[in-house]
Design goal:
By secondary structure, this protein is mainly alpha-helical. Helix content is 39%, strand content 6%. It has nine helices and five strands. The strands form two sheets. The chain has a three-stranded antiparallel sheet with strand order 1-2-3. A two-stranded antiparallel sheet has the order 4-5. Strand 1 (87-88) and strand 2 (93-95) form a beta hairpin.
């Protein structure tokens, strides 16, 4: 049996730094932070005023979206710390210094604070639910959403994701609110998960 000849291969120089430590995302010009940094309180009042003046046609104000988007405790951050210090996990409630219950942290109490009245069976909200519903969106449904929220001169010819810059002002407003609530770090590309929530504000 012949003795195998040694392979003359030049050793590969190891990288100067760990690959995991390279900021690859920062090098991608397609990825950026949320496109528009909105004043949440100003947006909240804008939506309220448009509802009161009866020029609000998308039903945004009637939903809980503006309330979740506002996150009122962010305006008074000390409220967060006070609630955390006085939270009783056994009763799921915030207590006063004297020990009396101020309010409970339950779905019923939160719905009461938000003045939410359940009129139909609710579906547990999760990213899996959005992904499942997004996969069921028909091309006609996607076209209907695009016709409502994408500029007339930028109607998409390809399937999602869509570019944020192509949306009209109402579309951008809703995308900003939805992205903020879902915890997305970017809203440059609008995928099916956001389109599912946009469909709730499409007339018809």
């Amino acid at each position: 049996m012949a003795t195998p000849a040694a392979l003359n291969i030049t050793p590969i120089n190891p990288p100067n730094r760990e690959l995991e430590a390279m900021p690859l995302v920062d090098k991608d010009y397609l990825i950026q932070d949320l496109v528009e940094d909105r004043n949440h309180l100003q947006t909240f009042f804008l939506l309220r005023n448009s509802f009161l003046s009866k020029c609000h046609m998308y039903g945004i104000w009637e939903s809980n979206l503006p309330f979740y988007f506002l996150s009122s405790v962010n305006i008074f951050p000390e409220i967060i710390h006070l609630c955390a210090e006085n939270y009783d996990p056994t009763q799921r409630a915030i207590k006063s210094p004297s020990g009396s219950i101020l309010f409970h942290i339950t779905s019923d109490s939160i719905n009461q604070m938000l003045n939410f009245k359940q009129t139909q069976l609710l579906v547990p909200f999760s990213m899996k639910y959005l992904l499942d519903e997004g996969s069921k969106l028909s091309s006609s449904e996607i076209a209907r959403i695009a016709k409502t929220f994408v500029r007339a001169d930028r109607q998409p010819k390809e399937p999602p994701p869509f570019l944020y810059v192509n949306f009209n002002e109402v579309g951008k407003l809703l995308v900003d609110m939805i992205s903020y609530i879902l915890g997305f770090k970017t809203s440059e590309h609008i995928d099916e998960t956001v389109l599912v929530l946009l469909s709730a504000y499409s007339p018809g």
